[in-house]
Amino acid sequence: MKKNKIILIIFFILLFYFSAFSQGLDIDEQSRKLASVETSIKQKEKEKDKFVKDEKTFKREVADLDKLINEAEKKLKSILQDISVAQKKMSEASKDYDNALEQKDILNKTIDEEVLIFNKMSAKQSYEKNPIEYKIRQIGIEQKQRSFDDENKKAVVYSKEMTKWEKDRDNLLKLRAKESAVIEERKKLIEEKNRLLKSASSKRKQTEEEIKKLNEDAKVLQSVVDKLILESKKRKESEELEKKRKEAELKTKPSIAPPRPQTISPASKKKQTPREDLMWPVNGSVILHFGRNHHPELNTFIVNNGIKIRAQSSAQVKSVASGTVVFTGQISSYGKVVIIEHGSFFAVYGQLSDILIKNGARVKKGDIIGRLGTGNNNVLYFEIRKDDVPDNPMLWLR
Fold first, then answer.
1. From the CB of residue 259, how many other CB atoms can be counted at a distance below 10 Å?
2. C-alpha angle with apex 235: 233 to 240, nearest 5 degrees?
3. How many other CB atoms are found less than 10 A from the CB of residue 141?
4. I want to staple 363 with a disulfide (CB 3.0 to 4.6 A). Which of 161, 176, 202, 319 is the partner?
5. For residue 394, what is the DSSP state?
6. Distance from C-alpha of 283 to C-alpha of 138, rounded to nearest angstrom
């Protein structure tokens, strides 16, 4: 009988989000729990589909942004080439302008010298003695003047070209700065989209794990329901046989007057104490309470059959009362577990790093039965069950 009860307790612990036997071995109750799990599975499937859709959306947006960045980088490359051309043209125009100014200076000096000689000849009337030389000098001055005017015009043209290419270069530099800013902005958007994509992927994986666990729990519940149906059928058959046997006995036995009922005074009744004054299994703070709790990441409520206590690293876990160890071993989602029968109730000590007691051992109140881990593994799961029903440990601990 005790062995069957221990097996039932282990079954209860596996069903973390729902208490399968909270109202006894009732088929309707278990069927309702199973339906609730199936509803949760459907809800989680919808959540998963949403996260999958978000993943596809973010991937598409990242691909579109990548495409826009590639196009912008090609445009930026073309702008840089145009800037290089403008810089080269401006440099050439600047050289031509400087060269034209230099030629102007040379021609201006030559013209001044020629005009000075020409004026001296005119003053001395040398042109009468050398009319051909006079004429040639006159023509030379006129030609140099025309060359001077041409160089001056070139200088003006080159100056305008230089101004134009300088303006084009400045505009291209502004355009380059603008395109670079656009690229940086799009890169930031890609970082944000990748962050959202990573978050959606993480939530999708987490939801898939939730669905997997719910499916496993649904299988366990279905097995329990099937077993209950079979046991109910056998029990009814047994009751029917017992009823027929008693009816047959009544037919063969003479009638006997029923015994007078005994009156029991209230003082003679034993006072029932539903809870006991227990020591804490470990010193620490409660971080997860019994019953309905809000899950911040999944934004939903879950039901806890026990409490979680955060303690110091490698803290020793002690028995809350005298009793017998009925189970030591590994249980899914609860890690290393010790279950102790403390007379009228069972206590479950889970998420242990080390088990320091053997199955079947007798323990006293305060005996060390295990040890917690370090870092994030210094949390004890503690559960109390009385009459196969989980109860709030905070009402038992002093």
1. 6
2. 95
3. 17
4. 319
5. G
6. 119
State both tokens at 174: 């502004």
Question: Per DSSP, which regions of the chain are E strands?
Answer: 284-288, 291-295, 300-304, 307-311, 316-318, 323-331, 335-342, 345-352, 354-355, 362-363, 368-371, 379-386, 389-391
Ordered structural domains, the chain, with CATH: 28-251 (1.10.287.2610), 278-398 (2.70.70.10)
Return the number of other C-beta atoms located less than 10 Å from residue 334's C-beta. Answer: 19
Amino acid at 253: K
Mention every residue, 6+ apart, whose C-beta is less than 8 A from residue 31. Answer: 225
What CA–CA distances, in Å, run from 271 to 126, 262, 387? 155, 19, 17
Of the candidates 268, 274, 304, the one whose C-alpha atom is nearest the C-alpha of residue 383 is 304
Please tell me the distance from the alpha carbon of residue 337 to that of residue 352, in angstroms, as a whole number: 6
Structure tokens at 81: 């080439």
CB 224 within 8 A of CB 30: yes
3-class DSSP state for residue 325? strand
Considering only CA atoms, give the Rg of the chain: 49
Q: Burial of 184 by CB count in 10 Å (0-12 exposed, 13-18 middle, 19+ buried)?
A: exposed
Sign of CA dihedral 380, 381, 385, 391: positive
Q: What DSSP state is assigned to residue 377? A: G
Decide: pTM greater than 0.70: no
3-state SS, residue 288? strand
- Per-residue pLDDT of the chain in tens (398 residues, 90 and over written 9): 555 555 556 555 555 434 433 434 456 666 777 777 778 888 888 888 888 888 888 788 888 878 877 887 887 788 788 878 878 877 887 888 788 778 778 877 777 777 776 676 666 655 556 677 667 777 877 887 888 888 788 778 878 887 888 888 788 888 888 888 878 888 888 888 888 778 878 888 887 887 777 777 666 656 655 665 676 677 778 888 888 888 887 877 554 444 443 333 333 333 334 467 899 999 999 999 998 877 666 566 677 889 999 999 999 999 999 999 999 998 877 889 999 999 889 999 999 999 999 999 999 999 999 999 998 889 999 999 887 788 999 999 98
Q: Collapse the DSSP code of 293 into the 3-class scheme (helix H, G, I; strand E, B; otherwise coil) and give the result.
A: strand
State how far the Cα of 108 lies from the Cα of 147, in Å rounded to an integer: 10
- Strand, coil or helix: what is 200? helix
